[in-house]
Amino acid sequence: MDRTKQLKAFDDTKTGVKGLVDAAAGGVVDIPNMFIRPPDEVAEDLELGRTSLQVPAIDLRGIDGLRRGDIVKEIKDASEKWGFFHVVNHGIPVKVMEDMLNGVREFHEQDVEVKKDYYSRDPERMVKFNTNYDLYMSKAANWRDTLIIDMLHNYHLDPQDLPLVCREATIEYLNHVMKFVETLFELLSEALGLEPNHLKRLECNKAKTVAGHYYPPCPKPEQSLGINKHTDASFVTLLLQDEIGGLQVLHQNQWANVDPIPGALVVNIGDLLQIISNDKFKSVIHRAYGNATRTRTSVACFFHGVATPPKTYGPIEKLITKESPRLYREFTVKDYMMKFYSRGLDEKSGLNYVRI
């Protein structure tokens, strides 16, 4: 069977990667060819080293007091050097985070006939489930399924559209995340040397997409990836991950593990913030490995700014100087996202679309 037919047959089951695992008596021993990474990609990967350095963890306790200046400096350093950092004491209750992860897990593990109703590749559908948004474009499919809540063009989410099994947990989590992200954008504004409300005025937190990823056990994780190396088409991404681990970031040409910290959220700088900060903050390549024996669950919230009606973004004027001339042209989020979704996740950064 040629690759396209194989992909189509897999897609038509509407059961995702978990369906493959469930259908295999005694577990999947071999993974289908469409999930196996190309040899050149594996070879290129082997040339990159591994580092024991850890992504910075920033304690937000005392944010409204004397520690604020120190916290802003830590965020500035992490955003410039890593593009990733953990935050602890962020104000989102541990139970709310646990319920969100459990809700995503329960959605993916519920009766397949109920789940099939949500299976879709329709870009207009706000709440859907599928496997690999770029299934037909990527060089190798990734070993994961995703529940997607797409609020890129429509900012109002009707709770009734959410799957019952995770409805309450999702609404509660999003309510807390929206409060926290306002604080985060204040800190990022200050870290750029701007007024605290600068990024808020640009409405960087307006449109968002939530991706509830589910990575079933992968019998040969060295042959496949949970998610290909990529940068995010967002201003920032907030990641909630369970205790399994598997996330890695590329730091100084070496892969660094982003080991889970209980109660922490992972913040990563996206392409759009790198652009408007005129390269002061970095959007870095990251990926996720599968686990041979355990299921991994994570929830990513991508904040895209204003997509509808089209709003123009570009490098912030105050950050352009004789020493730091403008590096990017203006763009709309809608155009940027259309280009992002028109290619495979394993291709080059979208920053080149708008680089001068």
UniProtKB/TrEMBL annotation:
Pfam families assigned to the protein according to its UniProt record, in alphabetical order: 2OG-FeII_Oxy, DIOX_N
Keyword Oxidoreductase: yes
Entry's Gene Ontology molecular function annotations: dioxygenase activity; L-ascorbic acid binding; metal ion binding; oxidoreductase activity, acting on paired donors, with incorporation or reduction of molecular oxygen
Domain of life: Eukaryota
Coiled coil: none
Keywords of this entry: Iron, Metal-binding, Oxidoreductase, Vitamin C
Transmembrane segments: none
Domain Fe2OG dioxygenase: 206-305
Entry keyword Iron: yes
PANTHER family with a match to the protein in the record: 1-AMINOCYCLOPROPANE-1-CARBOXYLATE OXIDASE HOMOLOG 1-LIKE (PTHR10209:SF429), OXIDOREDUCTASE, 2OG-FE II OXYGENASE FAMILY PROTEIN (PTHR10209)
Protein family (similarity comment): Belongs to the iron/ascorbate-dependent oxidoreductase family.
Name this polypeptide is given: Fe2OG dioxygenase domain-containing protein
